[in-house]
From TrEMBL:
Belongs to the beta sliding clamp family. One of its GO terms (cellular component) is DNA polymerase III complex. Its main location: cytoplasm. One of its GO terms (molecular function) is DNA binding. It comes from Bifidobacterium myosotis. It is found in: Cytoplasm. CDD domains: beta_clamp. Keywords: Cytoplasm, DNA replication, DNA-binding, DNA-directed DNA polymerase, Nucleotidyltransferase, Transferase. The lineage of its organism: Bacteria, Bacillati, Actinomycetota, Actinomycetes, Bifidobacteriales. This is DNA polymerase III subunit beta.
Length: 360
C-alpha cells in the first residue's frame, strides 16, 4: 500500500475514527482504494469510518493499532506525506521526517456492521440545529441510559428530536423524509456527531449519520422513553408571559449566577418579574450565600402575572438551545395556584423548551 495524503487531513481522520475505540481493543483498518484513504474503527457500541482524499499509488488494506497511528499522524509535520507499507511495518514519510510502526494482527480488524437499507438526506445546518436544541436537556449520567438519550421520531415527513432529564425538556422538528418510527440514541454521541451531516439512517439496532467524508454508527438505547409529550401545553393557556432578547437574558443570567458562591446546592434560583415597566432578573442568596445579591433590568414585553422563579443553569441551557433573537417565556398557573413547567418558545415554532420552576 502506498498513498499520498495531506498530513493534517490524515491526523484529523484518524482522530475522528479512534474516538470509538476501547483501550483493550485498539485495532483499526487503514485502506487505500480509488481516490481515498479510509480509517475504520469499532468500539463496544459504536463504529466509525473517516476518509480523506488521496493519490493512490498502490492500493492496499492493513490493520494497525489505532491509538499508535493517531500519535504518529499527529506528530508528522504539515504538508504532503506518503502512507506506505514496508514489510511488516507502516511508514509515514514526508520531507525530512519518517515515522514507522508495526502492523497489527488481522485478529484486531474491526467488523463492519450492516448499514441501513436507505439513507435520508438532511440539510446540514438544520440537522445541527435540531441536535443542538435538545442535547443539553438530556440527563448527564450513563447509569440511566434512557434519560441520557435523545428521542428521534419520524412521522409524515417530519423528524422530531426530544430530550429530558425530568427537570427540563427540549424538542425541535425539521422536514425530513425519514421512515415513521422512534429511536433512542445517546445524547453525547448525537452532540459529537451533529456537524456537517448530509444524511441519516436507522436499522432495528443502530443509528447512522454521514458527512461527505465520515460515517458514524451507534447502537440504539433499549427502553421506554418517558411520556413527555403531555408536558407541553397550549400557549393560549398562559397566565403570564415575558418576551425578551435572548442574548440579553443570557448575559443577565450568567452575571447573576457568577455571584453565587454557595457550593452546597446545585440550584441557583433567579427571579424574573416586572419592575417599573422593565423585566427584573434578580438573585438573592440564601443559606451560606445570604450575603450575595444582584439584579439586572432588561427591556421586555410582559403580560399577565409573569413572576417566575427558575434555576439559572436550566434557563441558560434552554436559552442556548434556541436560535431566535427574541424568546417568549410563558407561565401557566392553575386554579389551585400551582405553577406548571415554564414554556420557552420562539417565533418560528420549530423549537421549544420546558423548565421546571424552583419551588419555595
Amino acid at each position: 500500500m502506498r498513498a499520498l495524503v495531506d498530513a493534517r487531513e490524515l491526523a484529523n481522520a484518524v482522530a475522528h475514527a479512534v474516538r470509538v475505540l476501547e483501550k483493550d481493543d485498539p485495532g483499526v483498518s487503514l485502506s487505500a482504494d480509488g481516490e481515498r484513504v479510509a480509517v475504520t474503527a469499532a468500539g463496544d457500541s459504536q463504529w466509525s469510518r473517516s476518509t480523506l482524499d488521496a493519490e493512490i499509488l498502490e492500493p492496499g488494506d492493513v490493520v494497525v493499532n489505532g491509538l499508535w497511528l493517531a500519535s504518529l499522524a499527529q506528530a508528522m509535520p504539515s504538508g504532503e506525506i506518503s502512507v506506505e507499507t514496508d514489510g511488516p511495518n507502516l511508514q509515514l514519510r514526508g520531507g525530512q521526517a519518517t515515522l514507522r510502526m508495526r502492523l497489527a494482527s488481522e485478529e484486531l480488524r474491526p467488523e463492519n456492521p450492516a448499514m441501513p437499507d436507505s439513507f435520508t438526506d438532511v440539510d446540514p445546518a438544520e440537522y445541527e440545529a435540531l441536535c443542538r436544541s435538545v442535547v443539553n436537556a438530556a440527563g448527564a449520567t450513563r447509569d440511566r441510559p434512557v434519560l441520557a438519550a435523545v428521542r428521534f421520531r419520524g412521522a409524515d415527513g417530519v423528524l422530531e428530536a426530544a430530550a429530558t432529564n425530568r427537570f427540563m425538556a427540549g424538542r425541535r422538528s425539521m422536514d425530513a423524509a425519514v421512515p415513521d418510527g422512534e429511536w433512542l440514541a445517546d445524547a453525547d454521541w448525537v452532540k459529537r456527531n451533529a456537524r456537517s451531516i448530509t444524511s441519516i439512517g436507522f436499522t432495528g439496532r443502530h443509528m447512522v449519520v454521514r458527512t461527505a467524508y465520515d460515517t458514524d454508527m451507534i447502537a440504539l438505547v433499549d427502553g421506554q422513553y418517558p411520556r413527555i409529550d403531555g408536558f407541553w401545553w397550549d400557549t393560549a393557556e398562559a397566565t403570564g408571559s415575558i418576551g425578551v432578547d435572548r442574548k440579553a437574558l443570557t448575559e443577565a443570567a450568567r452575571m447573576l449566577k457568577s455571584v453565587c458562591f454557595d457550593t452546597s446546592s446545585s440550584t441557583v434560583p433567579l427571579i424574573l418579574d416586572e419592575h417599573d415597566g422593565l423585566l427584573r432578573v434578580s438573585y438573592a442568596g440564601t443559606g451560606r450565600d445570604s450575603d450575595s445579591a444582584g439584579v439586572r433590568a432588561l427591556e421586555a414585553e410582559i403580560s399577565g402575572e409573569a413572576r417566575m422563579k427558575v434555576n439559572a443553569d436550566y434557563l441558560l441551557a434552554a436559552l442556548g438551545a434556541m436560535d431566535a433573537d427574541t424568546v417568549v417565556i410563558r407561565k401557566r398557573e392553575g386554579s389551585d395556584g400551582r405553577v406548571g413547567p415554564y414554556l420557552i418558545g420562539q417565533e418560528d415554532g420549530r423549537v421549544d423548551q420546558l423548565i421546571m420552576p424552583v419551588r419555595g
